[in-house]
């Protein structure tokens, strides 16, 4: 393993990753005395890497390294890639970015990846990862040391490694993948704008909250158990049978939730805050979908429009509320307000009594 340093001795600090003259064997050294990093080499960008503001490092090839570290870099450098061809950054060790830089890899033609069997950590320092993040060929572990924001996809590919969020906020467009791996969410907030698909990954949810943010998003839980999942967009689809501590609907206006026919959602808490805006809950067709309440107590909702839903237990459990609509094909629901307690208090909307 060797250490190579990006150097401002060649063309200031602007250059392409593949240009050996941008790499020195020592910090501040002469370009060309180092080598273009390979999978076992460390790539450093430090106080001697950039001569003026806004200089640019361009990823023009498959850029591989062990650790990539920008600690100490000055002059607000930019990391970018071309808008054509196919390039990537493949890191088998730690990634350390800094706040005073611009991360602008092309989302269509470039991805950034962690791989290999070594334990590693990622620090993004407030930067938005502008391209797809892919853990692949990944049998080790990766620990996120701060919030991770990706405005493209987090896609787990061909691996069985473990990623731990350390209760940081994770944001992305799509979450999923084709590879079997494990995510430890802890107390993280997971923000997803398009689709969440856990079919091929193992999710240890801890006390995390998954927020499905945008209209048209799909939640495919893969039959796993979740802490809190919140749907806030205007339209969502829930695929497969899943288990939730809290399944919550928090739209800003009306909302339509489509459940796959033949599936069962098992919930401890089933809540919604929507004022007088109607939440429509329907099946993907007319075959029926199921809700099962666990943990005892009752569910109290209102302003629902229900179709082809089967709620259980069917005795004094599922209160749809007086303003809800029994559209067609429902069983187990009571279309009234919940009963008054012995203390004379009405169970409030969205509150699960008996816990």
Supply the key terms.
single chain; about 350 residues; mainly beta; ten-stranded mixed β-sheet; disordered C terminus
Q: Determine the N-to-C terminus distance.
A: 57 Å
Mean pLDDT: 94
Report low-confidence residues grouped into runs of 5 or more. 351-355
The total beta strand count reads 38
Helix content: under 10%
Largest beta-sheet characterization: 17 strands, parallel
- Structural class of the helix and strand makeup? mainly beta
Strand content: 35-45%
> C-alpha Rg, in Å?
25 Å
Shape: elongated
Number of helices: 0
Characterise the protein shown here.
The chain has a domain at 214-355. Helices cover 0% and strands 44% of the residues. The protein is built from no helices and 38 strands. The protein has a 17-stranded parallel sheet that branches. A 10-stranded mixed sheet has the order 3-1-4-7-10-13-16-19-21-23, with no helix packed on it. It has a 4-stranded parallel sheet with strand order 2-5-8-11, with no helix packed on it. It is elongated.
Provide the fold topology.
Layout: E1 3-6, E2 15-16, E3 23-24, E4 42-44, E5 56-58, E6 62-65, E7 68-69, E8 78-80, E9 87-91, E10 95-96, E11 102-104, E12 110-114, E13 120-123, E14 128-129, E15 132-135, E16 141-144, E17 148-150, E18 153-156, E19 162-164, E20 170-177, E21 181-184, E22 189-197, E23 201-204, E24 209-212, E25 217-220, E26 225-231, E27 235-239, E28 242-249, E29 255-259, E30 264-272, E31 279-283, E32 289-293, E33 299-300, E34 304-307, E35 309-312, E36 318-319, E37 325-328, E38 333-334
């Amino acid at each position: 393993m060797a250490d190579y340093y990006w150097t401002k001795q060649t063309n200031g600090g602007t250059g392409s990753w593949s240009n050996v003259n941008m790499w020195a064997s020592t910090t501040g050294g002469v370009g060309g005395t180092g080598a273009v990093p390979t999978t076992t080499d460390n790539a450093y960008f430090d106080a001697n890497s950039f001569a003026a503001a806004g200089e640019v490092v361009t990823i023009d090839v498959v850029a591989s390294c062990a650790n990539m570290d920008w600690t100490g870099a000055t002059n607000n450098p930019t990391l970018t890639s071309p808008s054509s061809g196919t390039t990537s950054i493949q890191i088998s060790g730690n990634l350390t970015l800094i706040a005073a830089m611009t991360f602008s890899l092309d989302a269509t033609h470039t991805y950034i990846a962690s791989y290999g069997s070594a334990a590693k950590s990622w620090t993004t320092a407030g930067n938005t990862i502008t391209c797809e993040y892919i853990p692949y060929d990944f049998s080790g572990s990766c620990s996120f040391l701060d919030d991770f924001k990706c405005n493209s996809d987090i896609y787990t590919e061909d691996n069985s490694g473990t990623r731990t969020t350390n209760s940081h906020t994770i944001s992305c467009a799509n979450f999923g993948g084709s590879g079997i791996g494990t995510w430890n969410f802890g107390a993280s907030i997971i923000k997803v704008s398009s689709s969440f698909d856990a079919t091929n990954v193992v999710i240890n949810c801890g006390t995390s909250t998954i927020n499905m943010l945008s209209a048209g998003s799909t939640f495919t839980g893969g039959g796993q158990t979740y802490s809190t999942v919140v749907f806030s967009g205007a339209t969502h689809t829930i695929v497969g049978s899943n288990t939730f501590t809290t399944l919550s609907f928090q739209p800003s206006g009306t909302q339509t939730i489509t459940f796959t026919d033949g599936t069962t959602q098992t919930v401890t808490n089933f809540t919604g805050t929507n004022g007088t805006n109607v939440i429509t809950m329907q099946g993907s067709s007319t075959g029926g979908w199921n809700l099962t309440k666990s943990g005892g107590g009752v569910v109290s909702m209102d302003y629902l429009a229900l179709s082809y839903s089967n709620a259980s237990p069917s005795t004094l459990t599922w209160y749809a509320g007086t303003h809800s609509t029994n559209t067609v094909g429902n069983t187990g629901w009571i279309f009234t307000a919940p009963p008054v307690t012995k203390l004379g208090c009405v169970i409030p909307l969205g509150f699960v009594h008996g816990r």
